[in-house]
Amino acid sequence: MSKxxxxxxxxxxxxxxxxxxxxxxxxxxxxxxxxxxxxGSVAVERSNARFxxxxxxxxxxxxxxxxxxxxxxxxxxxxxxxxxxDRSAYRNADGSAGRQGSAYxxxxxxxxxxxxxxxxxxxxxxxxxxxxxxATGANGNSYTGSTTVSDGTLVHTxxxxxxxxxxxxxxxxx
Length: 174
Description:
Elements: H1 4-26, E1 28-36, E2 39-47, E3 51-61, E4 67-77, E5 82-91, E6 97-106, E7 112-121, E8 127-136, E9 142-150, E10 153-161
Antiparallel strand pairs: 1-2, 2-3, 3-4, 4-5, 5-6, 6-7, 7-8, 8-9, 9-10
Keywords: Signal
């Protein structure tokens, strides 16, 4: 009986073990969970050679029809880029409800973007909300836009400028 297949299998197993150990050392992950009768939270962190990230989530309810929840997270890339978000929502026993949130992104070559806003409904069913967004390319051109809604009327405005601050045409669809 030849020892070659056994030697090849042993060498493969040693290489695979080394690769798995290297992968395990290169990646880290943690998760924390808490729960109560009224709510809870979850937090997760990850880290490896390409990025680091964190995210959290919380929720609560009082048993009377009132509840809320929130989420947030961030990411940082090894190449210098980063992004994140933050959002929350609520509902009340009287029928009112709402949500709000924001997000951002920063490119490794200088481009940035951010948005934030929210919308709510009061106990009588009236809805109001607003959102604003800005983006700047690595070349310095920028976009600023906002949208509002109130009493069923939607209004959107936008402005685009070049790196010198001069007004330019906005891309279609924005």
